[in-house]
């Protein structure tokens, strides 16, 4: 038992340290993770202290903690902020059950201290009410998260996987509470109470340790995305580039067509097409749409996808993805400089998502290509890299 608790507490503290070390670059969703990890660490640290110093205390065996009531709600808030739909009121609502339960918790704790360890008569009511709250929150929130998790952008692929795993594990805890609640209503389990209580705690502490490990994995991966250049091209981009290569092949074939056909193509206003596209990119910032494709941009410019691709390749010497992603990098740099001037915290990945990127690896690839450095290196010495580009 103590081994599982200390492992979980260590993982929570380690994950919290990773987040706090990069606090200046944290977004609100990272702050919510910090709240969650701090709560888990406090929960496990208190449990460890009780196990070591008061292992046979009645209050330890018959007293529900209030801290864990916040876990499902905080996970829900984290998902909301990944979707860019989160609000401060969501955090308050997520913490409200835990805040209310804390009043009863500290009231009972004060009674026990003042009465030499005697349990108050109203502890049964507290345990009953908090037990029902656990059951409802640990089933309602995870089901809600699993039902809506598809709305998280593919940009947050790792975070999405972590949220799905955590929601599933919390749901298992909720179902365990539900089974125990039904069992106690139907049968007398007094003789098995200590056994059930022990293994339920082992089950919960193990799940909290797994959640902490998954958070560490996601945050370290995100750190590497920002600080280490990833040279691999995303699969979706490779397939898109193949399509453009096919278009180029077709355009070369057109040069062997009869004279009338070549004359027809030569009458196309490529400069006009480029001007339309430049206007859409600069004035309407259509590149902010992460789902922007060659077809959709061609439709906005009122030209065929073939002519748009040919225009970009001949007049800009760039593929479609290279063209729009360079605009996105310029947008990220502008946002970074703007945040720096205002003294605001800078979450690089959040800015990349805001600028329209749907892949962290492609963001790093194009940032390196356009700016000549990694995003974190630019943040450290923007003046130097801007001077080099100039």
From TrEMBL:
User: Which UniProt keywords are given for this protein, alphabetically ordered?
Assistant: DNA-binding, Membrane, Transcription, Transcription regulation, Transmembrane, Transmembrane helix
The record's section on SMART domains has: HTH_ARAC
Q: Which GO terms describe its molecular function?
A: DNA-binding transcription factor activity; sequence-specific DNA binding
Highest taxon of the lineage: Bacteria
Q: Which residues cross the membrane?
A: 32-53, 59-79, 91-112, 132-149, 161-183, 203-226
InterPro entries recorded: Homeodomain-like_sf, HTH_AraC
Q: Boundaries of each HTH araC/xylS-type domain copy?
A: 271-381
Entry-linked Pfam families? HTH_18
Name of the molecule in the record: HTH araC/xylS-type domain-containing protein
